Amino acid sequence: MSEINPFIIFIAAIFTNNILLSNFLGMCSFIAISKTLKASFGLGCAVTFVMGITITANWLVFHLVLKPLGLEYLYFLIFIMIIAALVQFVEMVVERYSPTLYLALGIFLPLITVNCAILGACLFAVVRNYTFMQSIAYGIGSGIGWSLAIISMAAIRQRLRFSHVPKALEGIGITMIITGIMALAFSGFAGVVSMQ
Amino acid sequence: MLRKIFDLHYKMLEKYPSLRPFKPLIDAGDNFFYGTPHTTKEKPYIREGVDIKRFMIMVLFAVLPAAIASVYFYGQRAILVILASYIIGGLTEVIFCIVRKEEITEGFLITGILYPLILPPTIPLWMLSVGIIFGVIFGKEVFGGTGKNPFNAALVARCFLYISFPLYMTGGAFVEPYPNSIAIENNKPVFQGLGGFTSHRGLFSHEIKNGKFDAMCEATPLAKMKELRLKVAEQGSTPEDYQKYMNYVKTSLPNLFWGYRSGSMGETCAVLLILGGIMLIAMKVANWRTILSTILGGAVCSFFFYDANCLSDKLYLMAFTLLSGGFLFGAIFMTTDPVTGPITQTGRYFYGFAIGCIALLIRRFSGYAEGIMFSILLMNIFAALIDEIVIMVRYRGVKK
User: Fold this and answer.
1) Within 10 A of B66 (CB to CB), how many other CB atoms are there?
2) Which of A114, B132, B295, B373 has the fewest other C-beta atoms within 10 Å?
């Protein structure tokens, strides 16, 4: 487990084990925000940033605090708290420096707190016994993979504005179908590089 | 005569309003045989400057030689498979159009023939039908029909089958082509008589024996090459292994070129595919940028991904890569789809190059023997994004 090069994990997290398209984590904000390129790019950056930082912090807390104290069973609780604190921090930064982006993201910025992709990535890193460097690579890779998925989805949806989608499928329905086809295509990468 | 029949239909339509739902059907028949008085209302009119009907018919003509070759190599069953695809897929499309009150366009003429040509010849007919129904509905119709689909419907259908029924889509599903036992033994293409035109081997079903389809089952050149390459890559491999590997690559080149090899129905005969491609480019239906950059991407990647002892071996490997599997078929008929690809010229270079690279990446490093299907579908996802980026870079100063 510990022999895999962090760089390979980074690539694998983007393509072969894309956290959105192979684990289906982080779907809620993926579907809600992917309407315009700009907002999805902003959210993608925010998620990548939060993921990279939280996975580092969580790894440190898990291995330096929880493990020596024998409190591993608390890790769900602790992880969530760390994520919440960091998201609060990101929110303040975004509000200060880019009010337009802050308005575009709306409720979904605080909702990164409960974005399952972020907690999922932190937990995967612990379950798979990644080393410190591997965890960071995995976190940033997953964030970039997630951003890649949401940005390309936003581009497709922008193009779809001119399409005549059945009424019942407008919005979320068609997005789910596109996501399914995207996942079909991404399954082609299966086995190119392994991360476990 | 035909004109009268259609006029009669139109009159009946006016007389009996209850027949109204079938108007799209009559319209389609009318438009197919006669020019339409209307200008086109469907995409891709801006993108290519060719009326959609002419456009589709040209592609159909270009792919026809490959379709006829598939009958030559795989027997009358190929006709049956193509017919089934047209009938089932066409019905799905017609029902959808009637329910949604849309016009039936010529788009399905292309999807309906490209789809069977990328399937193994032993594909059970029910499976083919499931695939094309899925492809037409979820690959095309839910997005609003021809010209609006972000993904290539034929590839969506094939990918769906590939994931759902891998046994029928890989390895044992490929049979050796017809006039071949002599050809493959001598490693020389021999044209013999009518080939598969007179044969109805396994017309309605292929029996499965011992997990394989029948005695004539034959691994595709790509699968064989992969096996030999893995042997060379193993520890303790001898120079003989390498010799065997290179020998196979060299001797199979003429077979790949003339089409004597197992594979999906339409992708075997490289010569006819190239002719079709030249025709498409000459008619300005397909964009040469995409085709060229796809082939370039494949060639460059094969140079880096496949190890060989000397340069000439590398060149042989490169030729093998480009001629084998569905690479040419994909590059010529799938990447050039004007709807699912990027619309900017610069974007097309990137798009094609990435398709070539990813196809080779999947072939070389993943468990799958062939990667062109996945790579085109993957780049369909990113096509819209590529356009956005190109436009953003090009018009950076203009918007503000």
Assistant:
1) 27
2) A114
A192/B163 touch (CB, cutoff 8 Å), yes or no: no
- DSSP for A102-118, written as a single string: HHHHTTHHHHGGG-HHH
Q: Is the pLDDT of residue B186 over 60?
A: no
Nearest CA-CA distance, residue A18 and chain B, Å? 13
Cβ-Cβ contacts under 8 Å for B6 (sequence gap 6 or more): B26, B29, B30, B33, B34
Q: Where are the domains of chain A?
A: 6-187
Q: Indicate the angle between helix axes B270-282 and B239-258, nearest 10 degrees.
A: 50
End-to-end CA distance of chain B: 60
Residue A39 one-letter amino acid? A
Select from A162, A176, A181 the residue whose CB has the most chain B CBs within 10 Å, as the one to mutate to test that interface.
A181
Cβ pair B365:A156 closer than 8 A: no
Chain A residue set in contact with B, beta carbons under 8 Å: 37, 151-152, 155-156, 158-160, 162-166, 169, 174, 177-178, 180-182, 184-193
Q: Which residue in chain A is spatially nearest to B139 when comparing CA positions?
A: A181
Alpha-carbon span B223 to B240, nearest angstrom: 20
Residue range B315-350, pLDDT digits in tens: 888 888 888 878 899 999 888 888 888 888 889 999
B-chain residue closest to A156, CA distance: B384
Task: Look at the block and give the residue holding tokens 């962090």.
Answer: A6
Residue corresponding to tokens 């060639």: B299
Residue B293: closest CA among B267, B328, B331, B333: B331
d(CA A34, CA A43): 9
- State whether residue B156 is helix, strand or coil: helix
Rounded CA-CA distance B284/B287 in Å is: 7
What would the pLDDT profile of B36-80 be if each residue is shown by its tens digit?
Answer: 445 555 544 444 445 667 777 888 888 888 888 888 887 778 888
Q: Do the Cβ atoms of B338 and B107 come closer than 8 Å?
A: no
Q: Choose from A36, A37, A152 for mutation: most chain B CBs within 10 A.
A: A152
Query: Nearest-CA neighbor of B383 among B356, B357, B344?
Result: B344
SS3 (DSSP) at B212: strand
Rg (CA), chain A: 17
- Over residues B163-175, the mean pLDDT reads 77
Closest CA to B173 of B163, B165, B185: B165
User: What are the chain A neighbours of B138 within 8 Å (beta carbons)?
Assistant: 177, 180-181
Is A156's CB within 8 Å of B160's CB? no
pTM: 0.83
Dist. CA A129–CA B252, nearest whole Å:
47
Q: What residues are paired with B217 via a beta bridge?
A: B175
Task: For an interface test with A, give the residue of B104, B381, B390 to mutate (most A CBs within 10 A).
Answer: B381
Show residues of chain A in contact with B375, CB under 8 Å: 188
CA distance A80 to chain B (A): 33
